[in-house]
Amino acid sequence: MFTTINRKPEIDYDDTTGVVLEDIKGDVELRDVSFSYPSRPEQLIFDGFSMHVSSGTTMAIVGESGSGKTTVINLVERFYDPQAGEVLIDGMNIKSFKLEWMRGKIGLVNQEPVLFMTSIKENIAYGKEDATLEEIKKAAELANAARFIENLPNGYDTAVGQRGAQLSGGQKQRIAVARAILKNPKILLLDEATSALDLESERVVQEALSNIMVGRTTIVVAHRLSTVRNAHCISVVSGGKIVEQG
Questions:
Q1: Structural domains in the chain?
Q2: Contact by Cβ (8 Å): 82, 51
C-alpha cells in the first residue's frame, strides 16, 4: 500500500513546472508515434503513426474496434506518453506544457459520462472551478440541456444520484457536454460521444455537439455515419496506421 502511495507517476498532474502560454491556436499533431499500453507492452498499438489536425477543423477517426482510435485521444490528453515520436500542440511537444494548464484547454466527452453524486449544477461546474451560475446556464443551453434541467422540480439543484442514476442516457451525456464546454476549450475530444444513445437522444446530443464544434479543433472517434458526416476530414485507422484519408 505504501509503495502505491509513494509512487511518483511519470505524468504528474500536480507538477507545477512546464510552459504556460497566453493562449493556443489548437493545432494538433501526432508525429511518428510508437505506443503500447503499459499492461500489454509487447502489443504495439501504433508503430510510426502520424496525423495532423489543423486548428479550428474537425477530424473524424473511424475504424474497427481495437485499431487505435481511442488511443489518439488518450495521447492528446496525455493520459499516456508515447514510447517514440511526439504529440504536438501548436508545434510544441505536449510534455513541455504544464499538465493542468494544458488539460484546461482541452474538453473531453466520453462514451460513458462520469457523473458525481451531487447536483446537476456542481456536475457541470467540474469543468471550471470558479464558474458562475450564469456561465453554467449558458453551457447547459449550448449543450441542449437547459430545457430539461429547468423542467426538473429543483432545476439546477437536482441531485443526479449515484453515477447519474436519476437521469436518462441522453440527459447524462448533455450534462457531460455542458461540463466540457464550460471551460471554453480550444481542443474538443469526442470519444464515441453518442454511440450509447437511442436515435432521438443521439439527434439532440449531436445537435448540441455541432453547436459547440464551430471554430474549435475537434477530434471525433465514431462508428456511426451520422456523427462523422460533417467532419472536414475523415481518417480510417487500421492496425495502428491511417490507411485512408479524405
A1: 1-245 (3.40.50.300)
A2: no
Q: Which long-range contacts (CB under 8 A, 24 or more apart) does 104-107 make?
A: 104/183, 104/185, 105/24, 105/26, 105/185, 105/186, 105/187, 106/76, 106/77, 106/185, 106/186, 106/187, 106/188, 106/189, 107/180, 107/181, 107/183, 107/185, 107/187, 107/188, 107/189
28-35/106-109 β-pairing:
unpaired
| CA–CA dist 229, 217 (Å, integer) | 16
135: its cell numbers: 456561465
The residue with cell 506544457 is 97
What is the C-alpha separation between 206 and 123, in angstroms, rounded?
21
pTM of the model as a whole: 0.85
Rounded distance between C-alpha atoms, residue 220 and residue 111, angstroms: 11
Q: Given pLDDT bands bounded at 50, 70 and 90, which one contains residue 15?
A: confident
In tens, the pLDDT along 169-222 reads 788 888 888 888 888 889 999 888 777 677 777 777 777 777 777 888 999 998
Helix axes 133-142, 169-182, angle to 10 degrees: 120
- For the chain, the C-alpha Rg in angstroms (whole number) is 18
**Under a CB-based contact definition with an 8 Å cutoff, are residues 55 and 218 in contact?**
no
Amino acid identity at 238: S
Alpha helix ranges (H) inside the chain: 2-6, 69-76, 99-104, 120-125, 133-142, 146-151, 169-182, 199-213, 225-228
3-class SS of residue 187: strand
* Cell numbers describing residue 61: 477517426
